[in-house]
Design goal:
Largest sheet: 8 strands, mixed
Strand content: 25-35%
Distance between the termini: 45 Å
Number of helices: 11
Strand order of the largest sheet: 6-5-14-15-16-13-17-20
Helix content: 25-40%
Structural class: alpha+beta
Number of strands: 20
């Protein structure tokens, strides 16, 4: 067993989809990296049921995964491309976004979170300059002059000039560094269901809006799919207490007839929370992904915003080091914050505007929003620009 040094160029706290991606990107550019993560990903098993947590990976995120040399592994395992996105409340006001309208073969890909994490970890194993401490938890962190000292629950002590917080919504890195955040819990929970359909694999994802929340269909491989049901917390809890047969009957009543017949295999739920860190950086510290911001999952932008963070931070750090700058200084790290903070804030507010607009039960608002959808489907260039913005271009 190698005698690993306890001093690293960068320590990434959190080895999920975002943390593992930034660690891999740094390792590929010659940085020495430590990753702290409490839970190792499960090995890929093609016979296992699809995981509940699915991400709609945009084509821009795919570009990053290709640079990290992991996209080939993804398409060798299991994933589902989607080429069309449909949205409606009233049938007469139906919006459809097509990949062909922006000259692309796909809009994105549905991928299991756990599978993507496992693939990133497998690629990290190829690099001797990165070490994953797992299972491990961060017990404390303190700044001594220009160096952070991190203590793990195993009592190991690690040192670094730069800590990257990728440890999620309840980030210890954000909390212990004194960075505040603003946010709230939405009035909804999200119920996820893994189902089998009576149709072959589909390449369209759709959602229908109701005042109490949308219902969404996410295509997976073969005849598998993920259903997403937004509603008030008490209603979601009531659904989760149902037997699968009763839930099956309820879903067929509540979902669009487009769904057809399905069989439910697994379910799970979580609350919907928005937050935005007041700052993404300090001297020797940067926040990424959910540690810095969370967003309503309505448009599937969470991990894609995280991957935009990763791309920006990698660019800033590599460029600063190549120029001989103090790459962990606040002055340098602010370049990353300037690139990402406003973009994330605008996306959060855009999704919230959409969410609040479709939550109103007032008839004038219903008329206005359906007229807007009707017009959007015929907007030509504007419609294409909206799609490009959502995909990160």
């Amino acid at each position: 067993m190698r005698d690993y040094p306890q001093h690293y160029d960068v320590i990434v706290v959190g080895g999920g989809m975002v943390g593992a991606a930034v660690a891999l990107g740094l390792a590929k550019n010659g940085w020495s990296v430590a990753v702290l993560e409490p839970i190792a990903p499960k090995s890929f098993d093609p016979e296992r049921l699809p995981d509940l947590r699915i991400s709609a990976i945009s084509v821009r995120s795919v570009d990053l995964l290709k640079k990290l040399n992991v996209w080939g592994r993804v398409i060798a395992m299991r994933y589902a491309p989607y080429r069309r996105l449909e949205t409606w409340e009233w049938k007469q006001a139906h919006v459809s976004f097509e990949a062909g309208s922006i000259s692309r073969p796909e809009l994105g890909f549905m991928i299991e979170n756990s599978l993507l994490k496992w693939i990133l970890w497998k690629e990290i194993e190829r690099y001797a300059n990165v070490r994953i401490f797992c299972p491990s938890r961060l017990e404390s962190m303190q700044k001594i002059e220009k160096t952070w000292q991190l203590t793990l629950n195993t009592k190991e002590k690690l040192k670094t000039p730069l800590v990257i917080g990728a440890d999620g919504l309840h980030s210890k890195v954000r909390l212990w560094s004194g960075i505040g955040s603003t946010g709230w819990q939405y009035r909804q929970f999200c119920l996820l269901m893994i189902v089998k359909t009576n149709q072959p694999q589909q390449d369209v994802t759709w959602q229908q809006f109701f005042p109490d929340g949308p219902r969404a269909f996410l295509p997976l491989w073969d005849d598998w799919a993920s259903l997403v049901y937004y509603h008030h917390p008490k209603h979601i809890q009531r659904l989760q207490r149902m037997s699968l047969s009763d839930l099956h009957h309820h879903i067929h009543q509540d979902f669009s007839k487009k769904l057809g017949k399905v069989s439910i295999f697994t379910t799970g739920s979580f609350p919907l929370i928005r937050h935005h860190a007041h700052s993404y950086t300090q001297s020797g510290l940067a926040l990424l992904g959910d540690s810095a911001h969370t967003i309503h999952p309505l448009a599937g932008q969470g991990v894609n915003l995280g991957y935009r963070d990763v791309s920006a931070l990698l660019e800033v750090l590599n460029e600063a080091r190549s120029k001989g700058e103090c790459w962990y200084s606040h002055q340098v790290l602010l370049r990353y914050q300037y690139q990402r903070q406003l973009d994330n804030f605008l996306m959060q507010n855009t999704i919230d505007l959409f969410y609040n607009t479709f939550s109103s039960t007032l008839l004038p608002m219903k008329l206005a929003r359906n007229l807007a959808l009707f017009a959007a489907d015929r907007a030509g260039t504007l419609k294409r620009k909206v799609l490009e913005y959502a995909l990160g271009y």
